Amino acid sequence: MLKSHSCGELNKNHIGAKVTLAGWVDRRRDHGGLIFIDLRDREGIVQVVFNPETSKQSHKIASEMRSEYVVRVSGEVAPRPPGTENPKLVTGEIEVIVQDTEILNPSKTPPFYISEDTEVEESLRLRYRYLDLRRARMRKNLLLRHQVVRFIRHFLDAKGFIEIETPILIKSTPEGARDYLVPSRLYPGKFYALPQSPQQLKQLLMVAGVEKYYQIARCFRDEDTRADRQPEFTQLDLEMSFIEEEDVLNLLEELFTSMVETIKPDCGLIKPFPWLTYAEAMERYGTDKPDLRFGLEVKDLTDIVAQSDFSVFRSALAGGGKVKGICAPGCAGYSRSQLNELNKLVQDLGAEGLVTMPLAASAGSLDDLTLEMVRSVAAKFLTLDQVREIAKRLGADTGDLLLIIAGKSELVDMALDELRREMGHRLKLDDPHLFAFAFIVDFPLLKRSEEGLWEPMHHPFTAPRDEDVPLLDTTPEKVQAKHYDIICNGCEIGGGSLRIYTAELQRKIFKLLGYSDGEIKERFGHLLKAFDYGAPPHGGVALGIDRIVMLLAGEETIREVIAFPKTQEAADLTFNAPSPVAEEQLAELHLYLREER
Q: N or C: which end of the chain has fewer CB within 10 A?
């Protein structure tokens, strides 16, 4: 080894020891006679001192060192002079008096500061990701990711699960997103696909008698990126045989409870995890992944305003829409510019606008409230009784701000979900040190596509509830699925289900989704054939490792917890990918590029 210790491990117990360190120059300070360098490696930072009276040669070499030079030093650990200790560093009580040094590799001036946690434009960070990863915040995120994956492996190993790797090159099958296709050189005109998930593979492992399987799986989906989505991502894939829904959810609750208490012991955790039905989550929060760290619940006001003369409400209801709202406590004093910000937020999401109704604090109580005390255009078209009834339903009091949206139900729910999150953040209700997990259950099995066709709410292998199977022939929209999601702090971190495990029922679902007998045989014949050889009842879940680490790290996007992520436009700036390939490579694959017209 080129070093005897890491920089971050030294402390006062090492005083007097001879050490050799190697790392990067984090900061350099020349005090005329003495030169101080903060030396950094993966484990931390330690101050090293170059004194010409100790070693003229080392002092001369140190005068050439600059930020991000890779250097090696040898010397003796000594206590820092009284009054110069640095309580911000683990190594702040000591320093290393250098006796010998060498520059292993110089460095150009980096394009951004590495020793300072300053804001840097993301594209620049991703272009120089190898430098970005040297920064303390990113090193901390990488370590956290390692700790999470290590914890998962130890936890599941203790529960009797077997880790099994599944293929990356598989057959293209519809699972909800576009596949990435890989042309075959050996089979001209044929393609592999990169797996969107190991869904069918893990079901085949259950047919194989594995019973308890897991994998830290790489998955690929050719879809638009966003804060919590990437073209390639990592998930915990998990499947079990001979289980019911509650067995999976109990396992997940134990996993995440113990994970948070072990890895983030200073954070709070709401337990036991609440269970919400899909219908209940949509009714109370307008989303199936609500942030449960705070209330501000959505309430339907349609019946109260149905007879009002307010044109915004009347036109929405005439079009079959809804009128819903939330209460922002203590916000009646919001300025016009603040209200405009909220209005723009919902308009950017597609809503017509936001109806605001501040209830003046001067009223004292709702009983003393008058219409003149409600600074809202809507109040001109509502009776005082209607205003009071709206306020009571939203759980409001004087001094609060009522925020109401009218329009198509789906759009209203989406806008109020975002508005609720925004107000939770503004009111500091979204405690970053609290984790509010929950299970969402009783999803519909199917939904209508824009073309009016049936499509799976989750994926086509999800089992319907036993009592609802007869409804597949009459009213498929009423069929509920044995499907469940796990959410945390407003983010879906995983979803799963009990699976269909008989060829007859699986074929029936495929037919309902519009697949012909030929398409079923071509795309899913391997799975149906396996079911004919004694498939056990089974189910499982897929959990987003990137999203889990993002939440634990307190980051806003999963790009901050992935070593080499893609941009919002799905580009890799470090390698400049995607990129053209040579004509020879295309020829080997029997491909040619057609010019766009």
A: C
Cβ neighbors of 185 (< 8 A, separation 6 or more) are 588, 589, 590
What six digits make up the tokens of 440?
């969402």
Measured N-to-C along each axis, helices 409-426 and 278-285 cross at an angle, to the nearest 10 degrees, of 70
How far apart, in Å, are the Cα atoms of 160 and each of 148, 153, 156, 163, 579?
19, 11, 6, 10, 44
pTM beyond cutoff 0.90: yes
List where CATH 3.30.1360.30 sits in the chain. Answer: 294-430
Q: Tell me: the pLDDT tens digits for 96-146?
A: 999 999 999 999 999 999 998 889 999 999 999 999 999 999 999 999 999
pLDDT digits (tens, 9 = 90+) for 324-377: 999 999 999 999 999 999 999 999 999 989 999 999 888 888 988 888 888 888
Contact present, 359 and 401 (Cβ < 8 Å): yes
**CA–CA separation, 149 and 146 (whole Å):** 5
Domain with CATH 2.40.50.140 in the chain: 7-105
Instruction: Assign domain 294-430 to its CATH architecture.
Output: 2-Layer Sandwich (3.30)
Specify the CATH architecture of the domain 122-242+539-597: 2-Layer Sandwich (3.30)
Question: 140-160: b or e for each residue (b if 16 or more CB lie within 10 Å)?
Answer: ebbebbebbbeebeebbeeee
Question: So what's the architecture of 7-105 in CATH?
Answer: Beta Barrel (2.40)
Which residues make Cβ contacts (< 8 Å) with residue 41, sequence separation at least 6? Answer: 3, 6, 7, 8, 21, 22, 23, 24
Q: H helices then E strands: how many in the chain?
A: 16, 23
Q: What are the structure tokens assigned to 149, written together?
A: 């994956």
Do 478 and 472 touch, CB atoms closer than 8 A?
A: no
H/E run at residue 275:
strand 275-277
Residues of the chain with CATH 3.30.930.10: 122-242+539-597
Q: Please state the separation of Cα 311 from the chain's center in Å.
A: 40
- The C-alpha atoms of residue 391 and residue 332 are separated, in whole angstroms, by 12
- Beta-sheet pairing, 434-435 with 268-269: parallel
Q: DSSP alpha helices (H): ranges in 427-512?
A: 503-512
Strand partners for 124 = none
CB atoms within 10 A of CB 276: 21
